[in-house]
Protein 1
Amino acid sequence: MLNSSVTIRLISVTLTKDSNGVGIPSETFREVFAEVTSVSGSEWAEGGRVGVNPELRFIVFEPDYEREECIEYNGQRYRIYRTYTDGDWIELYTEKRNGAPIGSDHNE
């Protein structure tokens, strides 16, 4: 399925509490091959309706995806907001990350 594959970095975030009970984010990176496409017009419109800013769709071999929260591609970070499994492949729908660090989405 990967006609024009690129290398992306999947990013998972774990929180470790410091001595004051404040969660400190720690990132783990893994490189995998993916196909990258734009999201469809209907995905973009539906995302805007629910407060998401859809940007790119990444297709990876399903066993390569381990529920990471973000992707780094071409020096830019994207948050995975939705997935769709299609046989051996999984589509990762993303929005661009702006401002706050990745771990700041967690409420622990």
Protein 2
Amino acid sequence: MLSLLCPGFMVGWSLLPTPLYIAARRPLAALDRFAVSCADAEIAPHPGSLASPPEIPRGWRVNRHEVVVGEGREAYRRARAALQRLDFMRLPWLDVTVRGDVLAICSRQFGCAWLLNANRLLERSSGRREATLRWATSRRHVLVGEERIAVRWDARTDAVTFSVLSFSRPRHLVSAVSYPLVLLQQRRFARDAGRVMVRAGADG
């Protein structure tokens, strides 16, 4: 399967386990169409869950990161709003769109190509002390697993924290071959997203 999508050049290999889409330039318009096309994409089956309390399957790769983004009610309010807007996923090398319960992501790989993946939203909550976003990879993703993003306002310390927790495994030839780089990029996402949220919590 080969197609031209503007902007950029996008290719899909239908013979591999998961359709893979790569664009030569940041494919914002194509990302939206991709999200719509994934409306019926099923969740990639996996054990465990990041619902509270989390159940992480043994032997899976785990990515954990937590950073303090501020203190007090106003810092929490700002960080919660940034979480709801998905500001932490709008990075120079990453972008996102949501259509229904499809969360589609494009990420720059190897500094020269953009990879599109689709997730299914499992949880979106926004409370007085905690806001969370949780999703699972779909069959239109090169990985299998879950990710949970949370902003919490601690009643005891007054600290506002931003956390990332995920577990995953490869489910595509490309991710299996390049898995060490995939793990580095997961840690990069947690670090860069944390920086965005620190700015959001401090921006009065």
